[in-house]
Amino acid sequence: MALIRYTKPTLTRKDMDAVLQTMVDEKIGPGEKRREFLKLFAAYVGKKDGIALRNFYDVIRYSLLALPLSQGDVVAMSVLSPKVYELAVRDVGFKCYFTDTDDFGLPKAEDVRNGLAEGVKALMIYEPLGAMARTSEEYRELGIPLIEDVSESLGSVFGELRAGSIGDIVISSFEEDGIISTAGGAIAVSDRTEMVDSLKSQGEKVRKYSDLPDMNASLGIVQLMKMEQTIQRRNEIFKAYMQSLMKGEGRSFLSNNINFASNGYTFPVIIETRVDEALEFAKKYGIEARRNFTTSVGSRYLDKIDRFPNAIPALSRCISFPLYPFLKSTDVDNIEKVLRHIG
C-alpha cells in the first residue's frame, strides 16, 4: 500500500510552464513578475502594496519595524504561534507577551487586553491550520497595531470576513506546504500609506539579495489566479472529513460553525488517545498524519494548563491529516475511514 503523503504542492503543468517562460525570457531575478504577484496578492487580501521577499523571517522583521513602536515595547502573540515570531520580535529589540487562544484557535482578546497594562503595544495574529477570526471588532477595540499572518488561513471565510481583513499589515509565507507555494518566499502588505512606505524602506540597501525572484513569483501568479478553484476543492474534502469525524470520538481543532468556510489547508483533529498511537493507527492504513504545533512558542509551556487552558490541548494532542486537491477519491475514502475511528 502506497503511503498517502501528508502534503503535496499544488503544482500543475501550467505552473511549470510559467516558470519555464521566465527562463526563456531570461528574467529569473527580481523584476516584473515579482511586482505582478505582489499586486495580485495585495488585491486578494484587500490591501494596497508592500514587499515580496525571499524569506519569511525578513518579512516578519520588516513588518515589526514598520509599526509605531519603540525599543523595549511589548508584542503579544498566542502560544500556538511559530517560534520564528519570537525570534524576530526579540531580534528587533521588542519583548514578547504570550496569550491563550480563543475557541477559534486565535489569540484570546481578553488576554491581550490584560496585557495592555503590562506594556503590550502590538499584536501578531497567527491563524493556524486554516482558522480565522469570527469578527474583527474584538481586536480592533484593543486600539493597537495588528499584524495578521494568513500563511495557513489564506482563502478561509467566516461570514462576511475573509482572512486578511483584520491586519494593519498582512503577512504570508509561501513554502512547499502552503495554499500558495512559490518554493519559498513571503509577502507583507498594508493599506496604510505610512506602513507601506516603511516596509519598502526596510532593507533597501540589500534589496538585490532579498527580493523574491521572478521565477518564484511566476509560480505564485498562476496559483493565485486559480485560487478559488483550489479552495473549492479543498473545502469539499474538508467537509467530507468533518462529516466522518463527527461519527467518531475525535473533535476538530477548527470551528464547525455554519458560517465558517475552511480553506482546507489541512484537517486538524484533537484526540483523546496518545498521539503516537493515533499516528501509528493512521500509518497502518497508509496515511501519513502529523503532529501539529511542534515548533510553536508554546511547546515549552505544556505544563501550564492553568495559564493556557484552551491552547494546551492543541499543543499536546492535535494531529493533522492529508488534505490537498491532488488526493484521489480512494485516498479521501481511506482517510475518512480512519477519521471515523480516531479518538
What does this structure look like?
The protein has 343 residues and is α/β, with parallel strands linked by helices. The chain contains 13 helices and 14 strands. It has helices spanning 13-24, 32-44, 56-65, 83-91, 109-115, 137-140, 193-201, 207-210, 214-225, 227-245, 275-284, 311-317, 329-341, and strands at residues 49-53, 74-78, 95-99, 120-126, 146-149, 157-158, 161-162, 169-173, 186-190, 251-252, 260-261, 267-270, 290-291, 318-321. The protein has a 7-stranded mixed beta sheet, sandwiched between helices. β4, α6 and β5 (146-149) form a beta-alpha-beta unit. The chain is globular. The two termini are 24 Å apart. The mean pLDDT is 92.
Summarize the structure.
The chain is α/β, with parallel strands linked by helices. It has helices at 13-24, 32-44, 56-65, 83-91, 109-115, 137-140, 193-201, 207-210, 214-225, 227-245, 275-284, 311-317, 329-341; strands spanning 49-53, 74-78, 95-99, 120-126, 146-149, 157-158, 161-162, 169-173, 186-190, 251-252, 260-261, 267-270, 290-291, 318-321. It has a seven-stranded mixed sheet, with helices on both faces.
**Low-confidence runs of at least 5 consecutive residues:** none
Which of globular, elongated, flat, extended, rod-shaped describes the shape?
globular
Query: In total, how many beta strands?
Result: 14
Radius of gyration: 20 Å
**Biggest sheet overview:** 7 strands, mixed
Helix content: 25-40%
Question: How would you name the oligomeric state of the polypeptide chains in this document?
Answer: single chain
String of helices and strands: HHEHEHEHEHEEEEEHHHHEEEHEHEH
Major sheet: arrangement of strands? 1-9-8-5-4-2-3
Q: Which strand-content bin applies to the residues?
A: 15-25%
Mean pLDDT: 92
- In whole angstroms, the N-to-C terminal distance is 24 Å
Q: Tally the helices: what do you get?
A: 13
Main structural class: alpha/beta
